Every structure is written in structure tokens, then in C-alpha cells.
């Protein structure tokens, strides 16, 4: 994500997923925080981001 428009696009895509209460994207860290019902599938969130035209990056450096 490079700007506020990207943040808004990602947030909008995620809040469009049934059960998502809120989403906050941070372009500086490249991270997104999502608050949702327990029954929201991770894959639904991932699909929403990729459908919006963004690539996913595994930020887990412990692997």
C-alpha cells in the first residue's frame, strides 16, 4: 500500500465481507487490523484483499 487511497480500498474490501465489523489498514507497516465475528473465515479476508488487486505478504519473520 502506498497511499491513503490504497488504505481505503483495502479497508472497504474487508468491511464488505459479511461479519467484519471494522478494518484498519496502515500503509507504513503494510498491516491490516480486522475486528470481526468469530465465524469469519480467514480465507474470506484473504480473498477480499486479492480481489481488490493487492498481493499478500507473509509478515511472519519467525519462520
From TrEMBL:
Residues 34-43 have a biased composition (Acidic residues). One of its GO terms (molecular function) is metal ion binding. Signal peptide: none annotated. Residues 1-57 form the HMA domain. Coiled coil: none annotated. Pfam families: HMA. Residues 1-43 are annotated as: Disordered. This is Heavy-metal-associated domain-containing protein. It comes from Haloarcula nitratireducens.
